[in-house]
Amino acid sequence: xxxxxSSAALPATSRRRLLGGAAALAALASGADAFAADTPLPDNRxxxxxxxxxxxxxxxxxxQGRQTQRDFSVGRVARTSGQKPFAAILACADSRVAPExxxxxxxxxxxxVRLAGNFVNDDGIASMEYAAKFLDVxxxxxxxxxxxxxxxATIKVLQENAVLPGHLPGLVASIRPAVxxxxxxxxxxxxxxATEQNVRQSVARLATSxxxxxxxxASGAVKVVGGIxxxxxxxxxxx
Length: 239
Description:
alpha/beta; globular
């Protein structure tokens, strides 16, 4: 003889738990249906100026603590078929700098390339060529930041003859022209001036790079800009 109880015979507390569990399962099923349907990829063909304004507005929200509340799983299925980022960012690899957070954007919005010192090399150019030519990204930003360790290390090598191990001398060689150019101006802060100069030189190289980016920048198909992220405030200033 079965000693199981029907839901009607259960105590009130147990019945509430059973009904609550059923409701939770129903909500999960509904959510699964929503994920299956998903949402289409956004249109990123908005132009460089509009893309830059979107970044500026997102950074303002971030710096003021008004970030957009997101369900990061939304759009996940649609993104398996492709990507349509509206901006490409060349940023430093510094763990304190996260472009998606700094500009208050979600998955699929930004095409990000990161390396210590955010300088432009052939690999970085190729990545940006891919973003502009094949992903139709209308905006490229080179994003430096305050208190950059890679630039500080380069300054120490030049000013104090510091010796770095491994492959770090190659990194210093790439940043050195910006530090030397900034130092010749005898600024109050060589670090700040070199950080800005490094961004400007990287922007110039991307905007004139042949055979792809230079032509796209000249025609207005892609806009190339530079910015500096302030670690203390979270604000990005254009340079």
